[in-house]
Amino acid sequence: MYPEELPPNRREPNDVDSDTHSEQRSYTTGHTTQCMDERFDGFVSERLRELGRQYERARRAYADGKETSQRAAVLDKLPVDDADRAKIVCRRHAEKRAVKLDVDGKPACFDPDHTDCVGCLEDIRDGMIETW
């Protein structure tokens, strides 16, 4: 659309009327360009945020998978008895025990309020638990 076809309130101050085409002017007003710039900036910002979220989800999934596989490798190395119970030495009672471990490596006898049990769980996850 030519500037002279725009309503007078939409024209830029330096637009030339059709009868005096001494020089060519922009066909868009500053308002339209500004609006398009804002929409484009909004679109780009939205896409970048979405890409950032996708990257973070992928990074977290990779880290979780890596941690899970490492934990599974540690739990697979523990000696087990015929009933598939881990043979560990209990730090709390200082005795040999055969206990079932859940998927997180937590023994069935685990007490979250006891410091020896918490240390035992950390040792199991680190692969440094005393076994028999």
List keywords for this structure.
132 residues; two-stranded antiparallel sheet; 2 helices; rod-shaped
Task: Show the helix and strand layout.
Layout: H1 30-77, E1 86-90, E2 95-99, H2 115-126
Antiparallel strand pairs: 1-2
What would you say this structure looks like, in words?
- The structure is a single chain.
- This protein is mostly helical and 132 residues long.
- It has two domains: 3-11 and 24-77; 86-126, no CATH class.
- 45% of the residues lie in helices and 8% in strands.
- The protein contains two helices and two strands, in the order αββα.
- The chain has helices spanning 30-77, 115-126; strands at 86-90, 95-99.
- A two-stranded antiparallel ribbon has the order 1-2.
- A hairpin with a 4-residue loop joins β1 (86-90) and β2.
- It is rod-shaped, with a radius of gyration of 35 Å.
- It starts with 29 loop residues before the first helix and ends in a 6-residue tail after the last helix.
Written as H for each helix and E for each strand, in order along the chain, the element string is: HEEH
The description of the largest β-sheet is: 2 strands, antiparallel
Cα separation of the termini? 87 Å
Rg value: 35 Å
Average of pLDDT: 78
